[in-house]
Amino acid sequence: MTERATLHQKNLEKIFNPQSVAIIGANQNKGTVPFDIFNGILSGDFNGVIYPVSPGKKNISVIKAYKYVLDIEDPVDLGIIVFPSSVAHMALEQCGQKGIKSVIIISAGFREVGGKGIERERKLLEIAQKYDISFIGPNCLGLINTDPNVRINASFARQMPAAGSIGFLSQSGALCTAVLDYAQAKGIGFSKFVSFGNKADISEVDLMYYLMRDEKTKVILLYLEEVSDGRALMKAAKDVIEQSGKPILIIKSGRTEEGASAAASHTGSLAGSDEICDAAFEQAGIIRCDHIEEMFNIATAFAYEPIPPSNRVAIITNAGGPGVLTTDTAIKEGLQLACFSEETSKVLKKALPNTANINNPVDVIGDATAERYEAAMEAAFQDSNVDGVFVILTPQSMTDIDIIAQKVVDVVQKYDKPVYTSFMGEADVASGIRILQQNQIPHYSLPESMSKAFAVTHQFGQYLKKAPAQRIDMAATDPLKAKEIIQKAIREGKTYLQEYEAIELLNAYGLPVSEGVLVTSEKEAGQMAQQIGFPAVMKIQSSDVLHKVDVGGVQLNVITEEDARRTYHSIISNVQERMPKAKIQGVFITRQIPKGEEVILGLKRDPSFGPVIMFGLGGIFVEIFKDVSFRVVPVTREEVLEMIKQVKAYEILAGARGRSRRDVEAIADAILKLSQLAIDHPQITELDINPLIVLEEGKGCFVADVKVLLTNELEFN
């Protein structure tokens, strides 16, 4: 952790737990942000002292006002700046002079408006660094701490939310108000609630580390519009999850990139920012959600119930249709219907009418009383084969909804197993749902949401149990040789390596290449093909040709010396006809690789997450099928094997339909070496190995074609 990041953790204590607060720029104009901030703290039962700073005012409401922060006689823990952006830096300067180290800057009009706003924000950061101040914002809603020992609503949200165990962090202030309203309707409480705006100083990473140590927080939710430092976010998430066991749920907006320019390589084309986010979040153990409802469906499961040790569930319902629907969605999400023990079946048979279904899902019949639900729940919870219970209710004319809801609450308190409920409907079941929500029983409108939440919590539990992976030894690599190849190409003004150069580069890292030779005449082509051996492959080498096949620049199955001479002439003619301005260096000849399955390995350097590797189905149709997976480097062997198994084409590699199994371990070795190459040489911006020919299990794999794109910078970072 950097020195400034350490400072933030210290100063965040007084941002969240101040004993005294100065509202700098407060006024008495109702309906304005300065007044609402002041009034929110005043009316929210803040357990501390409030100092309104308002030039020209003697008091705000009934509290004495000060002209300047420096006029306040006593020490101040937290400064909240609500002055216009044009003078916010002056207020921050006075905070520094006063010795206030913790600040929230609510004011807008900074980087988000461009122009002078960017300079204003830069000035804020300079002042903060000068005085060792840490600040949240600018351009934010503020924060809320529901801890009864503090109770501060330092925001312009309409009301103080209920206390709870969910910490919510958001880059969008407007979304925060909608979330608070949604949560109030669902009876969901928060431990901490933060809008961090432009994150000019304190970022989501700093706040995640703070919530990791916060005893009131069990679950961390995060809404992001941009990932400015993906690697820091991944590290923070891994630290939080591994050290505290707290789940992190993220909504990241901007899933589509309309109008994005096409990249030069297959990897560059396929590895959009959203696909990389998905891969990075999965690696870090982050749970990505598509929308607010999904996020809170999962968050309440974590906040209210224990993590299930297995995926075995029991379903209890008073209607057959919803029971079948829930079964379908449970199976779809990878859950299992628990097989009841003989004892459980006996108890259910005795407690339920003859018309009831005592198998899983248990149908207690439409006229079910609270006692019938209670008996079924008790039996399910006591069965060691059951690790979670779904309780479904549809409102029949004879159904006592409130009493059944209370029975759920009473039974659940006896057991350390999760229960999820779905009282289906709206108006008739509303009071029963309120009973469940008030007692922190997860409730879902639809069976799909219930099954998804259970599956996610179970998967997170399995993630926590994973043993730390070991990094592999890359001692066999030759990074100096690779550096020489790259620097030579850059000195010559090349933006990508010719294949013979790329082959030499991969060879320096032990990747399985078929070495060859560059020839510049028909005669030389025949001679060298004879030396290399038949069958051979011949490919055009030109700095102007990216996709060789498209211009007739590749020929397989060259089988004689005469054939090699004719092929050389044909390839040169094809390229000259289709790309007459192309500068041709010659033709590269290699020994033809035996037939096998074709896959693609790729590398792209993402501006936020750094180097990212890709694996997928190879060949010319990779961009059509898009059967690929991604990981952010560095990677472990376990992560590589997971990414290989993630693609649909893995079934082919595993020997589907009687085909021979392919050498998956050799693919993993190649990806690990590619990962190290990406780490060691930042000038490689994109790389495709397409195809990588994978032979039968135990026989390895070989690079059939490679493309390497470079930056124009010579020196390494």
General description of the model:
The chain is of the alpha/beta class and 717 residues long. The protein folds into 4 domains: 3-217, Rossmann fold; 306-465, 3-Layer(aba) Sandwich (Rossmann fold); 515-592, Dna Ligase, domain 1 (2-Layer Sandwich), CATH 3.30.1490.20; 597-710, 2-Layer Sandwich (D-amino Acid Aminotransferase, Chain A, domain 1), CATH 3.30.470. A 7-stranded mixed beta sheet has the order 9-8-11-10-12-13-14, sandwiched between helices. Helix 17 (479-491) packs antiparallel against helix 18. It is flat and about 95 Å long. The two termini are 21 Å apart.
Helix-strand blueprint:
Blueprint: H1 3-16, E1 20-24, H2 33-43, E2 49-53, E3 59-60, E4 63-64, E5 78-81, H3 85-98, E6 102-105, H4 116-131, E7 134-136, E8 142-145, E9 152-155, E10 163-170, H5 173-186, E11 190-195, H6 204-213, E12 219-224, H7 230-244, E13 248-252, H8 266-270, H9 273-284, E14 287-288, H10 292-304, E15 312-317, H11 320-332, E16 336-337, H12 342-351, E17 362-363, H13 370-382, E18 389-393, H14 401-412, E19 419-423, H15 430-438, H16 447-465, H17 479-491, E20 496-497, H18 499-508, E21 516-519, H19 522-532, E22 536-542, E23 554-558, H20 561-578, E24 584-591, E25 597-606, E26 610-617, H21 622-625, E27 628-632, H22 637-646, H23 650-653, H24 664-680, E28 684-694, E29 701-703, E30 706-710
Parallel strand pairs: 1-2, 1-5, 5-6, 6-7, 10-11, 10-12, 12-13, 13-14, 15-16, 15-17, 15-18, 18-19
Antiparallel strand pairs: 3-4, 8-9, 8-11, 20-30, 21-24, 22-23, 22-24, 25-26, 25-28, 26-27, 28-29, 28-30
Helix pairs in contact: 1-6, 3-4, 6-7, 7-9, 10-16, 11-16, 12-13, 13-14, 14-15, 17-18, 19-20, 22-24
